[in-house]
Amino acid sequence: MLTQVNYEVKGQLAKLLATEDLIIENRKVSTASFDTERRVLTLPMWEKASGVVYDLLVGHEVGHALYTPADNWTYDYPDVPMSYVNVLEDVRIEKFMKQRYPGLSKTFYNGYSQLADQDFFELSENDIEEMGLADRINIHYKIGSFENVNFNDDEKYFVDKAFKTETFKDVLNLAQELYTYIKEKQEQEEQLTKLDDLEFSMGGDTSGSGMGIPFQPSDEKTDSEMEGDVEDGEKSDSKGGDGSPDASDMKHDEVVEELERLSDPIGGVHGGVSEAVTDKTFQDNLENLNKQETNSFYVPDYVELPTLNLESLVAKNKQVHDYLDEYWVRSQKNFDENSSSKIDIFETVDNDYRLFRRSAQKEVNYLVKEFECRKSADAYARATVAKTGVLDCTKLHTYKFNEDLFKKITVLPDGKNHGLIFVLDWSGSMSTVLMDTIKQLFNLIWFCKKVQIPFQVFAFTNEWNRYSNLDNQSIEDYYRSSYHLPFNHHTIKDGQLIVENTFSMMEFLSSDVKKKDLEHHMLNIWRTASVLDSRGRWNNNYYYQAPHGLSLSGTPLNEALVSLNYLIPQFKNRTGVQKIQCITLTDGEAHPISFSKEFTDRDGHKYMGSRSTHSGAVFIRDDNGKTHNCGNNYHEFTSALIHQLRGKFTDVNFIGIRVLDNRESSSFIRRYCDWDQDRVAGLQQQWRKTKSVMIEDGGGYNAYFALSSSALNSDDSFEVKEDATKSQIKAAFKKSLSAKKMNKKVLGQFMQYIA
Fold first, then answer.
1. Average pLDDT value for the chain
2. Where are the beta strands (DSSP E) in 530-651?
3. N or C: more exposed end of the chain, with fewer CB within 10 A?
4. Helix 515-532 to helix 347-359 angle, to the nearest 10 degrees?
5. Is 80 within 8 Å of 275 (Cβ atoms)?
6. What backbone torsions phi and psi does residue 309 show, to the nearest 5 degrees?
7. What residues does 245 pair with on adjacent strands?
8. pLDDT for res 515
9. Please, which residues bridge with residue 34 across strands?
10. What is the separation, in whole angstroms, between the first and last Cα of the chain?
């Protein structure tokens, strides 16, 4: 039973064989094709082919892509049948592929062996000896190891020369020569037919021709008389119009000999001048490999990234905070107008922010220390020692036994300057851990400021474009209003991912602003997160609500990853950094994303629709031609997007930080460890001890960190009541140590990637 072919793997095989970044497409097409300009090799989906046959066909088609030019040769060789060229070119390109990759010889042998067993060339219905020369050459070079093919001395010339062709021009010339030879032989056979008819009219013995009619001479002549007749014939030089000897001028034995010589199979019943039948049979049966019933839903689709308009997609830093400032002023005004109490509605939340900022300095200082230590250790690990050419006077007394009297210097390599991009999940499911995540983010921001690392913080959402311009309306008008959405973020094109116009990347924080402005912006985000940190509802402990434009939304993480293809180069160009750490902070998986696809209705009219990426047969294709399987599950598509980013930006580390409930830890670890039981067991044990894990290459990230939401929420300060017992003091102390242990371990691993 045939197993399902992994088209992505076979595509990678084709690219490796070609030793170039070919664009490989597996489609429901009858034959393979190669676009020389775009360097796109389209391979049929040979569903019925076994793995080894599929490899054979891939190697064969890559050979054509590498060595067969796209020139239109028919103008220079108008009479040469296409099948002749195909047969001879197959010999040449398969020879080159075997020479280039010796391991393919076994693949070709085993593949053709299976095809021979399957009677792929339909030899059971046709006698090889009756086939034309072009067909027998084709059989000889493809399955000659399994079928005995005979050639006469004249034919061996073409067999040998076919293997010696080096260029496509050689192939064309040989095809022309082969065509001329076969045509002449066929004309000779036609002339032989005329001779046979003449023999009938002469009543000659045609037993040698196999006709079974006895020879009956009309006149009795002696041998000398017959010889005289022949001599007279020679003198008259009587021949047919085409230069062939006339039967009336030939002896009986000579006629028989000529008949036997010309009776060798040239075209046979299948092998005329016009085509090589086995070539057509081969192509037809290749098409039959595609005729397995397959749900069209699983036919591979190759999708590309859209060209995004960042002006409509990104809500800039100033835009976001001007909006928040206006909203806070309006909120205070509304409270004052509707309440007799004259209080600052933001006093409590602002004090909380200032308290956290002071308490966080220990952790920030630890980050700075860890970063500097790791950076120095890495630099000295790569240090080199060089001689200076200056004498070391302290070694002069050793000149009799020491040749090294020169001072040395330790050379430290220049480190790369770093930059950080944060991508924050602003979805509804984040409500229970939003403040904990914001605290971790702020610690990293203060760390960046201390070590002077440029940074940029984005939050992805589906709410900004919908509601940011509706906050000056009443709640009734708000719910009655239609969405005021911008133009599409990109042009809708067939085969491109769709980024909905509701999606936005809100630029929360940036290192480009002044220190005073940055603190103000962080306070704005703190205020917003504080009232949203209540399971998706506004926190009623405060006298204000979050603005509609910054409400928690769905989880457009996938759209955010697509946008990084354009935000990363923009950040690099603006800051001039050499190494970027791109950090995603989220609590869950992304919602689906679709791609545009052109369909045809029953009337033959084309229209643009969309299709999900979760079919298991959708591949993201990058600018460099690399493809990434989107998979069947929601998290696999996200992983594919991250792999695409890593392939495109090799100087960027992509780090995921996932905030988990304890009940989610097991499924998370199993999923992103590819169900490796030994690895899963080790990480689960680590989670129980530290409430954190780090998975290398998990989910496509260079490193995927998981942090317990409950552990992040816990206060690591050592506090007990005045009348606490010894056991209570001990428990409180252990709790504070545990929290510190967790933080230090995770932060240490994190700094390993940053430094």
1. 78
2. 579-586, 594-600, 606-612, 618-621, 627-629
3. N
4. 110
5. no
6. -95, 100
7. 239
8. 93
9. 41
10. 52
